[in-house]
């Protein structure tokens, strides 16, 4: 059930990323909703759900904006960022809420630069004139977006999540 909810949630996040995010631009930079939600889900709920979220959300994102994005470029960049988040979450300790918010800032740079390299390799040109300069405002915006999303994900997990209990 967790995987099915991750697929549905990631498709909704990709739809929001392509339809609502262009209207939520601050300083010419739009938030990466699929990236932030996949990182928050990976750290807060679990790496399996985070990887499913990154794969399905990235594929949906690529298919919805196919001429501008080569199919698979967002998937690879999201899986790399989510994999790093899963490694950090494994060694971070018990406070997953703070970890989910903290990993968003540096992993936005990883995602933006990986995506720029993949698009440059596939299409022959970098999608932004200065990918590192545009990544800083995106990292700040994504970190601000991660705060309410991490709180919501943690609340949902504490309310309806599955707990391992000793069965006597």
Question: How are the elements arranged and paired?
Answer:
Elements (H helix, E strand, L loop, with lengths): L1 H18 L13 H12 L2 H18 L8 H20 L3 H7 L1 H20 L7 H30 L8
Instruction: Count every helix, treating DSSP H or I runs of 4 or more residues as helices.
Output: 7
Radius of gyration: 16 Å
Strand content: under 5%
Task: Supply the CATH class.
Answer: Mainly Alpha
**Outline, from the CA principal axes?**
globular
Query: What's the rounded overall pLDDT mean?
Result: 86
What is the CA–CA distance across the termini?
25 Å
Number of domains: 1
Portion in helices: over 70%
* Major sheet size, sense and barrel closure: none
Strand tally: 0
Low-confidence stretches: none
Q: Class by helix and strand content?
A: mainly alpha
- What's the CATH topology name? Arp2/3 complex 21 kDa subunit ARPC3
Return the string of H and E elements: HHHHHHH
Task: Please outline what is shown here.
The protein is built from 7 helices and no strands. It is mainly alpha-helical. The longest helix is centred in the C-terminal third of the chain and has 30 residues, at 131-160.
